[in-house]
Write a structure and sequence with these properties.
Radius of gyration of chain A: 22 Å
Distance between the termini of chain A: 41 Å
Oligomer: homodimer
Largest sheet of chain A: 8 strands, mixed
Number of helices of chain A: 17
Shape of chain A: globular
CATH architecture of the largest domain in chain A: Alpha-Beta Complex
Helix content of chain A: 25-40%
Number of strands of chain A: 21
Chain lengths: 494, 494
């Protein structure tokens, strides 16, 4: 899928000849912003590799502390896995990360500082469970009303939370029974702990959206760690907080779209952000670091690398990254996830007393959300298509996939869903500089074997990126936390 | 660990000023050989990326068919995971792949053509089993004489062979029950299928050496497929053929070292091999392919990529590789394996009636082999240290690791082992252009999800490398087969 951030945002509209200083057109604000060409400074205190949310937060904090900083971003836009999409009528939705919720204090504080408001995800009315065997059923709460599921699901959830509570968020490799848990896939564990296939099918809704992979590709240890990180220093992570809507990870969204966060930080950083500057080599000596990008070479005292894990493998490192770090990076593939939105003149389901939230136990759509903008000027339904569902339909022609998606939507909220005024897809697996989404999952065995290198600096190189966070790894909050931590590490040395 | 191929081989000794055409000093032969600097041809029929055995075989076959070919190799040597090491006394052993055996017909035929002889791995006398609980026991055959192990091991082996026989070597994703087998780690399966922890410990000897990872990191489907590939078109693969010595994968070695195969092919290819030429970009148009390397840009009608899977991710692809291929590459980490050799004035264990082969149920050394050169002028004992054993000792100071290794050798063959005249290690995880060894393992779930892209050409780009073979993937024979297949695919279009 083509990158189309520029034209949508009008980033290029303010391009000055030669200097290529751009104006970012957000929702009203205009500011001096990132360069897209031209020479880079010869040296700075710190180079940040990657202009996603995590890297930008790191840069922002280092600038606040009085350091000279340069962000080198491979794409012609900032934001990484955050990307606004403007609908034909002018409303803004997200092609990438969107939801926030309680205990995600770091991203919420940042949003407040940047004057980006949140609004509650619509949860009024009934949710819908679309079952192959039971048909379409309305329900409230979080567990679909399948009698086969209810009892098992409640017990499993308690067990998962209990097991997760024993996994240290900053050292899952030291959890009790870590080696065995890391050698067992979630799929194997579920087969041993529930006899009800429907439970596994319904859990797919969560796994596919949260990891972009099904339960067969991740270990129990990684899964439990991920649940443990769905909280903060005073609220232990739980499955409910990771998977739920109200009061949980899908509680709210940002007015104007989550992309406003990176856009506003980049705007403030101005020409400290260099776009179109993929980093190819990072060379350290006893005196500093040399970073080679397609737009030139910059010297720095410290470097923060804030890119999706597989991308760090493609950099020429001198000296080479330590073997255990290279192994960790090789064992952290990005998930496969597509976000699909269907737009309607009105959120017609709300008038029917439906929340727009649905869970499916079959088919390519496993989770559906109401994704209307804050003003609900148009109606938007969102589907996450990840993991094996992505495998089933990502390669189909768009028209066929659209048909499958809309048919699923119609099962949940009625035949009106078959005729959207707009249909939007974004598949992150097509993106050179992300390689998939929403997050990289540490493969079975690898958390115990190599996990402890996740935040270990490599000489003068430090690591950010949401995957390195100890809370809300894989979420915007984790990106912010990781950027803050990496900046603090580096600031000590500047 | 530093690359020290050049000085050992005297590759540079024949360097001509300017043109940098080198003489390869093998065991007697001298020939015009690879270039290390200077300009590349502007265009050729086919570019081969990667000068390991697979890429060189592909290039050789294309040249034989009358095509112009250029091999672009990142290192300053050819051979990839094959690398001879010359001992102080002049004898040659291997730092990388070494063993060959029956049904590995393609590499054996190639060796014959190249006039590289084989000799039998020494198997006379008793093997030794070093057990934490039973002490040191002599035995013959393949299964250690632990009464706890014998019955279970025999049954497991039969079951594994039976299950492997149902896995198509060219399409493991279509095996019966493929999804479940791919969602189950070998470790989980073994826990369900044997109650004897010793069996799992002894199997580690095989997993660590064969995959460079323990049983927790690989799925049953990938493991069964790998066993199925340990054969040829008329001899179904078996666990015994993959793991055994006489009449199996460790049956023989090459006189003068396995590296003679790539060296002699490269020698014949001459200046068609460009060293120090890492490939950074591969760009396709409707008319051809442009390959950008550090030594220049070359146009080609077709390209064969023959590099370890994780390295292909680091290339800038235009158009980008298809998402499923990118996912496969992200799910194929290289193993962790170190080869350690201790050299003695004589193979003293042979005089004691010992074969020099040992299996350990504990400690960092799990497998030991007699690794004397063909003339047995010196005695050499070899240990594979892979997977969790690698994790336990690869980061230790060399002196400490040496102590652990020699103590293990001494337990197996006596205290003479404590005082070698030479001690040699090679850890492939330190190598930028290999990233680990002996092979890339497809992660749990990923064979079913993405495996079918393994040999799918990307437009004008075709895939070689041992991991793409349908027999003896991960071995030299697989490398040769894959190179031959890729060359045949490309030749059709030239």
């Amino acid at each position: 899928m083509a990158e189309h951030g520029l034209s949508r945002r009008g980033l290029l509209s303010g391009a000055a000849a030669g200097g290529a200083i751009l104006a970012i057109g957000g929702i009203g604000e205009t500011a001096e912003a990132a360069t897209t060409s031209g020479s880079l400074p010869a040296s700075v205190d710190a180079v940040v590799v990657g202009g996603g949310l995590s890297g930008l937060v790191a840069a922002r904090n280092l600038v606040k502390a009085g350091n000279s900083v340069l962000v080198l971003e491979a794409r012609n836009r900032v934001g990484g896995r955050l990307l606004n999409h403007t609908l034909k009528g002018g409303s803004v939705i997200e092609s990438g990360g969107a939801f926030v919720g309680p205990t995600q204090n770091h991203v919420l504080a940042l949003a407040k500082e940047l004057k980006v408001k949140t609004f509650k995800e619509y949860v009024t009315g009934d949710n819908v469970y679309v079952s192959k065997t039971l048909g379409t059923l309305k329900y409230t709460g979080t567990v679909p009303p399948d009698p086969l599921i209810l009892a098992d699901a409640a017990i499993l959830q308690l067990r998962i939370d209990d097991m997760a509570s024993k996994v240290p968020v900053d050292a899952p490799w030291s959890a009790p029974d870590a080696a065995n848990l890391d050698a067992t896939t979630v799929d194997s564990w579920l087969r041993q702990n529930t006899l009800i296939p429907q439970v596994r099918e319904v859990l797919k809704a969560f796994f596919q959206a949260a990891f972009g992979t099904d339960a067969e590709g991740i270990s129990m240890l990684f899964f439990l760690w991920y649940m443990a990180t769905a909280g903060d220093e005073t609220h232990p992570g739980t499955f409910e907080r990771a998977s739920g809507t109200a009061d949980a990870a899908q509680d709210s969204r940002f007015v104007g779209g989550s992309d406003l966060l990176p856009l506003r930080i980049a705007s403030a950083l101005g020409s400290r952000v260099a776009l179109n500057a993929p980093v190819r080599k990072i060379k350290q000596t006893s005196t500093g670091v040399t970073v080679v990008s397609d737009r030139g070479t910059v010297k720095a005292r410290r470097v923060i690398v804030a890119v999706p894990p597989p991308l760090a493998l493609g950099i020429d490192w001198s000296p080479l990254l330590p073997p255990r770090r290279l192994q960790l990076l090789q064992h952290m593939p990005m998930g496969t996830l597509m976000k699909v939105d269907a737009v309607y003149a009105k959120p017609f389901w709300r008038a029917k007393g439906l929340s727009g939230s649905a869970t499916f136990d079959d088919g390519v759509v496993r989770t559906m959300f109401d994704n209307c903008p804050a003003d609900a000027k148009v109606g938007v339904l969102l589907a996450f298509i990840g993991g094996s569902s992505w495998q089933r339909c990502a390669m189909l022609p768009l028209a066929e996939r659209r048909k499958l998606v809309l048919a699923a939507f119609a099962k949940a909220v009625g035949p009106e869903a078959l005729n959207p005024i707009e249909y939007v897809e974004h598949d992150w697996t097509h993106e050179r500089w992300t390689m998939g989404s929403p997050v990289a999952s540490v493969q079975p065995g690898a958390t115990v074997a190599y996990g402890s290198t996740i935040r270990q600096p490599h000489g003068r190189v430090h690591w950010a990126g949401t995957e390195t966070s100890t809370y809300w790894a894989g979420y915007m909050d984790g990106a912010v936390r990781a950027g803050e931590r990496a900046a603090a590490e580096v600031a000590k040395h500047l």
